[in-house]
Specification:
The chain has 131 residues and is α/β, with parallel strands linked by helices. Helix content is 27%, strand content 24%. 24% of the residues are buried.
């Protein structure tokens, strides 16, 4: 049930945008063992002048920020697998590994309202968070 925001500073084709979304989602499915159908991913394209990046980036147009909000409870090993998976999957699409930054924001399940306004802690999610 993670939600993801991917921010980029260059325009991609529709097919490339879908591939970027799928690359990040695929890493979540593998590392966090969420159902593949549980896809909550947004991609926002910024104009370069509205998205400042570190000057040392060799190809600043490829800077990619990935912000993930999720339930707390995943192990450090699962998080490491996630970070590596995202970077690897995006590298296969031509995005340099050192141009990707990932932030993970964890919240207790009682801080999420889902499925018609229920606290996530009161709902059978259909998957385990303790991975």
């Amino acid at each position: 049930m993670p939600t993801v925001l991917i921010e980029v500073r260059r325009h991609y084709s529709q097919a490339e945008e879908v591939a970027i979304i799928d690359a990040v989602h695929g890493a979540l499915v593998t590392a966090f063992q969420i159902p593949a159908k549980d896809k909550n991913v947004r991609l926002v394209v910024h104009e370069p002048h509205r998205f400042a990046v570190p000057v040392q980036l060799a190809q600043p147009e490829y800077r990619t920020l990935v912000s993930i909000d999720c339930f707390s409870g995943r192990s450090v090993e699962a998080k490491r697998l996630l970070y590596a998976g995202i970077v690897e999957n995006l590298a296969e699409l031509g995005i340099p590994r050192d141009h990707v930054m990932i932030t993970l924001h964890e919240s207790d399940r009682d801080n999420w309202g889902i499925r018609g306004g229920q606290a996530a802690s009161d709902v059978d999610l259909g998957f385990t968070v303790q991975v």
